[in-house]
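If you are new to this repository, start here. Below is one unmodified record pulled from the training split, so you can see the exact layout before writing a loader.
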Amino acid sequence: MKIIDLSLPIDERAPEVHPFGIERLGHKEGVRHLNWVMMKKNWQGRLAFLLGKRIISPRQLPDGEFLSLETVHCPVHIGTHIDYSFHYGTKSEGRASKSINELPLEWCFSDGVVLDLTHKNPGEVISKADIETALKKINYSIKSKDIVLIRTGADKYFGTLEYLAKYPGVSPEAIEFILDKGTNIIGIDTLGFDRPYKFMMADFSRTKDPAYLWPAHFFGRKKEYAHIERLTNLDKLPSSGFKVQCFPIKILDCGAAWARVVAII
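And here is the target side for that same chain:
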C-alpha cells in the first residue's frame, strides 16, 4: 500500500486572499505562559506574577521547557479544504443547506479518478466537453460514488502570487455532468472552483451578466454536492485504481472545513 498526500499546508508565509496568522508559543516562553495562566485569576496572583513570583520554575521542568502552543487564526478556506452546501447558500435542492459537520462520511472514502485538464489556460472554463474528452483519453466511465479529481497543474504555483490567479474554473455544466454519474465530491488542484476573481469581475463588468459570478459555487444551490479545493500532487497518481480519503475536520455550523486529503494505492 502506498499513501500519497494530496493536501497543501496552512502556511502563513504564502500569499493569500484572506488575512490569517499563526501565533507560536515556544517551549521556553511556555513556562512563563503556564505560570501566567495559573496566576492571573485574581489581582493578588497577577501582582505576584509581575513581581517575578512563579508557581512552577523552569528548573522544575525537563530541560527547562514546557509545551509548545500554536494558535491558528485562519479562515476555513485556506489550505486544502472541503466546501459543502451551506457555503453555497441557505438552500440546496429546495431544502435547508447542510453544514460541513453534516457531510456524509460515506462520501469521503471512495474510488478516485484523475482527469488531466492541464492544457486549460488561466481564466478559461473547463466545460462538459473537456470532461468528456479527458475521460475518453483514459478510457474511463465515472461510476457512482467516485471522487473525481481535476488536475490543472496550478498547485505548482503555491507559495507565490501566481497561485492566486493562474488557473481555470469549472463550469456548472461540467459539474452537473459529473454529478449525474453518481458522484458526490469533486476535487481540484486550484485556489478555487470558479475562475479567478479578476476574470469573473472583468466579464461581469463588461456584460453586467451575473452568470459570470461564482457559477460553480452557486450551482451547489441547485444540486447538493461537495468540492475539494487546493489539492496537490495529482500528477503522482494513476488515472484510476486508487482510493481517496477526504474526511473534513468536524466544525459545527460552518460551510467548509480543512481536510487532510490522501490517495491510497
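Two things worth knowing about this chain: The longest helix spans residues 27-39. The CA atoms of residues 102 and 252 lie 9 Å apart.
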